[in-house]
Amino acid sequence: MSKGVLLVNLGSPDSTNPKDVKRYLDEFLMDERVIDVPFWARSLIVRGIVLNTRPKKSAEAYERIWWDEGSPLIVLSERLQEKIDEITSVPIALAMRYGKPSIKSGLQELHDKGVDEVLLFPLYPQFAMATTETILVLAEELRKVHFPQMKFTTVPPFYKHPDYIRVLAESIAEHLKGKDFQHLLFSYHGVPERHIRKSDITKSHCKIDGSCCKTPSEAHQFCYRHQCFETTRLVAEYLELKENTFSVSFQSRLGFDPWLQPYTDRTIERFGKQGMKKLAVVTPAFVSDCLETLEEIAMEGKEIFEEVGGGEFHVVPCLNDRADWVKVLSRWIDEWAHQKPVEV
């Protein structure tokens, strides 16, 4: 069998035009694993309310971070793909869960190169319904209809893999060298609390309190909350961070249902009101900088912090196409290509 890899990231509108943003948001928010309510209710929320108010505001946000080459997320993902492709032994294709290039086009690209065994590589360190799961479900649907001869292998969440922890920790240390920050905030993308409960394969472990994520359970293999805290714990351990000099928060909530807490914006505001002089923020739910990191954290977060009396505000970039990150991904891919188990 001929092998190839499909890297999959979140996606982006084609441009900052409100019409393109509206089309992107429709595809994204109408995903039943993003807004997990019955279709009629999801359609009412998204097409009846959100898409009549949000596209213009979101378009303005995208305009603040858009590059000459296009969407930062797309550009950075393409750079990552190109660098991996240069040093791996198998074809590397790129796809986005929403927008272009689509997962179907990525699989077609590999198919046209004679690939019939594909390593699906969701570029998410932690598992979540709205990220990893929706990619795998759609890919399988497409395989059955369009590529029935293809065989899939999936890279599991790598939130605690020593290679990932090392690269992430060294990236943080590099960017904060000499900054003498007082606190390091690990801000992860938020999800509704019900997503955590739905992903609990034991149907009883996840309480979303102070104990369940620390209590060993098979539920943790699909628990986004646990995996976020575990990434944080391991990085803090690697960097030898002192207790109370780091914490976890969750950003980007939508609607009125309970989402994972504490919320990033409120946490940043609280630190600022306390007169914190130097705050650093890292966003380990993302491997590529995007709207949520470049605008929501680096711009909005900074504004919140400074407006309430905070001092210096430092944002650690995502791993993007760092040389050490490229080497790690390339090694994982080559190990799979040479029939070694993908163990992350």
Can you offer a commentary on this structure?
- The protein has 344 residues and is of the alpha/beta class.
- The protein has two domains: 3-158 and 323-337, Rossmann fold (3-Layer(aba) Sandwich), CATH 3.40.50.1400; 162-315, Rossmann fold, CATH 3.40.50.
- The protein has twelve helices and eight strands.
- Helix 5 (129-146) links the parallel strand 3 (117-122) and strand 4.
- The longest helix is centred in the N-terminal third of the chain and has 27 residues, at 39-65.
- It is globular and about 60 Å long.
Provide a concise account of the structure shown:
The protein has 344 residues and is an alpha/beta fold.
Spell out the key features of this protein.
Rossmann fold, four-stranded parallel β-sheet, alpha/beta
